[in-house]
Amino acid sequence: MLNTTTAVLLATSWAPLLSGLLHQCLNADDPSCNGGVAAFSAMLRHHSKLEAQDNQNDALPFAHIQLLDKDSAFVHMHPLGLSVNRLILNGLMGLDVFASSPSILLQNNLDSGVSSQDISYLQTHDMPLLISNVGVPPSNSWHPYTKAVHFDTETRLAILSLAMSTEELNVPAAMGGLRYVRKVNEENGCVKPSSSYHTLLSDYFSHSNVTTSRVEETDSSNCWLPIVYHSDKGDQFESFLEAMRALPRHHRPAMIIDTAGSLQEYEEPTLVDGIWVASPRLNSRTFFQHKLEMSYDAVFGLQLDYVEFISAPLSPLPDEMKDETYRSEIL
Q1: Per-residue pLDDT, 204
Q2: CA distances from residue 77 to 54, 205, 233, 282 in whole angstroms, order as listed
Q3: Phi/psi class of residue 215: alpha, beta or left (left: φ > 0; alpha: ψ in -120 to 50)?
């Protein structure tokens, strides 16, 4: 039970797989090392321990949302192609989810008359694709390997990702996902059942791999806090934000992250009608982290009380962040 405020970290990475060019970064102390997902993860582990000092814990729980590396020379030249992302992100680093634009759904040769790539190795239940605004049909080879909501057990965050679509799809997709998270919270006894309205879209999200159990008393131990990533054009984000603000309080997201940096006034997280709005312009060379301080309310569940934003260059990586894990993961 959460009787006091607790904190978790949410880190968003666009870092490439390699820590430099193809001929660079031969070892962890090579001065030519330049960013990469290994450096991002090392920085996240460091901040997790640093932030925990104020909470008397060894390390704060964190969620790492990683964008698929599609465009680097390493990916294009590797025999596995796009599938090398799985080899490194899941096989080496243990990440359990990744994000991408909807175009990935047509990159496998089984799903397109255009692509000749075989990326079936990228498709795995161990690291599914997080995409919330596309209904993937059973005829698509990605169907068993996608999720609309990522329920992160370490942080208790329920994360949605809306990527490169239209407002006509983004708003109802977000509404369906948010209603589903509320439904899970109600069935888990996190909040008292409400007269939450139901749609067919919320049924679609029931395929997410999270278990529920109906209980009578409220309990914060199985609560989920909904977070929405919005990766689209600026004008669409403004209208999307207005639509989220118009929702009933118990169906609103706790936080919306606009990865395109569309609205400069929200570069620092800002509370808008009960929703924390963050609009950092993400890039592949920078570390991005949000520290989320949460508390529990018996009516509305987990509440997001405060958000702190940290960004820093990935290169050069300070020596104190080069732990043993970094040295084993450096590529």
Answers
A1: 53
A2: 45, 36, 31, 25
A3: beta
Sequential DSSP letters for 119-154:
-GGG--TTS-EE-SS----TTSTTGGGEESSEEETT
Question: What is the reported pLDDT for 116?
Answer: 80
Please tell me the predicted confidence (pLDDT) of residue 210. Answer: 60
**What strands, in cross-sheet order, belong to the sheet with 157-163?**
150-152, 157-163, 225-231, 255-258, 275-278, 270-272
Q: How much is the pLDDT for 4? A: 58
AA identity, residue 300: F
Is residue 235 within 8 Å of residue 211, measured between CB atoms? no
Q: Is 156 left (phi over 0), alpha (psi -120 to 50) or beta?
A: left
pLDDT score recorded for residue 200: 47
Residues of the chain with pLDDT under 70: 1-5, 54-56, 165-167, 195-220, 234, 331
Query: Hunting for tokens 């936080």 — which residue is that?
Result: 255
Token pair listed for 300:
């509305």
Q: What is the pLDDT of residue 234?
A: 66
Task: Note the pTM of the prediction, 2 decimals.
Answer: 0.90
| Number of Cβ within a 10 Å radius of residue 270 | 14
In whole angstroms, what separates CA 97 from the centre of its chain?
8
Whether residue 100 contacts residue 132, with contact meaning beta carbons closer than 8 Å, is answered with: no
CB atoms within 10 A of CB 246: 10
Q: Cα–Cα distance between 4 and 322 in angstroms, integer?
A: 33
28 token code pair: 């962890």
Three-class HEC string of 244-271: HHCCCHHHCCCEEEECECCCHHHCCCEE
Which tokens go with 79? Answer: 């025999």
pLDDT attached to residue 56: 66
Nearest Cα to Cα of residue 156 among 249, 255, 226, 209: 226
